[in-house]
Write the C-alpha cells for this entry.
Amino acid sequence: MFASKRISGPQEALALLNCLRVPARLNTTETAVLLGFQEHDIAPLVVAKLLTPLGKPAPNAPKYFASVDVLECAQNRGWLEQATKVLARHWRRKNDAKRGTKDITLFDQVRGSAP
C-alpha cells in the first residue's frame, strides 16, 4: 500500500493516517505525515537527535524509523514542543545565513545556545 517512496497526495496521507495497523518501518515521508511535519523537517530532527533512524544508515542513504517510536513521539506534548523549537531555530539560522545576518534573540541568549 505504501511501497512508494513518496506520498503523492493528500489521499495517500489520509490513507496512512486511517490505517488500522501502521507499517513497522516508516520512511521519512510517512514519518513526517504521522508527526505532522514537512518531509524536509525530518533531517534536522535526526541531526538534533530527536528522531533516531533504524540501523546505522550512511548520511546519503534513505532513513527508516520504527513506527512505535514515531507514534510515541506524536503523542508526547513535550517532544512535539522541543521538536518545534528545534525546527524554528534551524530554519531561522538557515534564513539568516542566506541573508547574511546573525540575529541572536533573547531566547537564544537565555538558553545559552547562541552561535
Q: What stands out?
A: The chain is about 50% helix and 5% strand. The chain has a mean pLDDT of 83.
